[in-house]
Amino acid sequence: MRIDIVTIFPSFFDSPLREGVIHRACERGVLDIRVHDLRAFTLDRHRVTDDAPYGGGAGMVMKPEPLFAALEQLKGENPGATTVLLSPQGRLWRQALVREYGTRPGMILVCGRYEGVDERVREALVDEEISIGDYVLTGGETAALVLVETVARQVPGVVGQPESVAQDSFFAGLLDHPHYTRPAEFRGRAVPEVLLSGDHAAIARWRRREALRQTLRKRPELLAAAELSADDLKLLEEIRGADDRGC
Ligand code: ADE
Questions:
Q1: Are 145 and 214 members of one domain?
Q2: Whose CA is nearest to atom 10 of ligand 1?
Q3: What are phi and psi of 170, to 5 degrees?
Q4: pLDDT at 243
Q5: Any atom of ligand 1 within 6 Å of the Cβ of 133
Q6: Based on CB atoms within 10 Å of each CB, which residue in 31, 117, 186, 222 is the most buried?
Q7: 228 and 110 in one domain?
Q8: Are residues 143 and 57 in the same domain?
Q9: What pLDDT does 16 receive?
């Protein structure tokens, strides 16, 4: 998958893209991530990318000319890519959307700054506006990294252990179950016995039950949208019953 990132702070991406799973996937050619300095697409001597808003008011707006030049070039180079503007006004980025983007041929990520981008860029060149949460970041760079990391995980060959991505989807919409490693007992706290049993079916059932329990306790609103089987509903009933009894 090819991912293009358009930013006025290209060095922001140096370290995150030089580390770990993403870096290794780029080295193997599974991912092709290119960071573009928006200033390289300016035509004026001072390489200006922003200007005052028409109508007055605080802050600056990203000018249309360099963004049009950058996006027209990159759409040609990365055909089929979805052009995404990162902004707090966008559609909320959730795992279901992550999975959908994982099947697309590419992304062009536009990192917004200042008060926003000139509306004509959005109208003419942006396919989708995405927000990573209901808060305001200084710019879209951090959000772009979130998209890169989450979508990259879906691309076959990026994560060394495909079971780990399959597990993300098995537990889709639920919080994760607890994890333990050695020693089996530490400072008087024992690892749940079932995890030492070698009984894979029992372990899977325990993990599912704990995922449901964590979700019910911490994010109950997620249960309404999660894909739950008849077994899950039974487990939830049991958990609710146990909670009512104070277990
Ligand atoms: N830019 C500023 N805030 C943002 C957010 N919450 N998501 C995506 N891009 C942003």
A1: no
A2: 87
A3: -60, -40
A4: 82
A5: yes
A6: 117
A7: no
A8: yes
A9: 95
Q: Rounded to the nearest whole angstrom, what is the distance from the C-alpha of residue 185 to the centroid of ligand 1?
A: 43
Q: Which atom of ligand 1 is closest in space to residue 134's alpha carbon?
A: 6
Ligand 1 touching residue 132 (CB < 6 A): yes
> Would you say residue 171 lies in a domain?
no
Position 167 scores a pLDDT of 77
Alpha carbon of 29 to ligand 1 centroid (Å)? 29
CATH code of the domain in which 235 resides: 1.10.1270.20
Supply the pLDDT for residue 245. 83
Mean pLDDT per 10-residue section of the chain, whose length is 247 residues: 98 96 96 98 97 96 98 98 97 95 98 92 98 96 98 94 78 92 98 98 97 96 94 96 82
Q: Is 168 a catalytic residue?
A: yes
Give yes or no: 32 in active site.
Answer: no
- Strand ranges across the sheet with 106-111: 32-37, 2-7, 106-111, 82-92, 128-131
What distances in angstroms separate CA 101 from CA 7, 154, 221, one per listed residue?
21, 8, 24
Angle at 165 between CA 195 and CA 179, to 5 degrees: 25
Q: How deeply is 165 buried, as exposed, middle or buried, from its count of CB atoms within 10 A (0-12, 13-18, 19+)?
A: middle
Residue 76 corresponds to which tokens in the numbers above?
């040609």
The last residue of one of the domains, among 127, 152, 177, is: 152
What is the extent of the structural domain holding 190? 185-244
Cα pseudo-dihedral 181, 182, 183, 189, rounded to 10: 10
Query: What is the three-class DSSP state of 69?
Result: helix
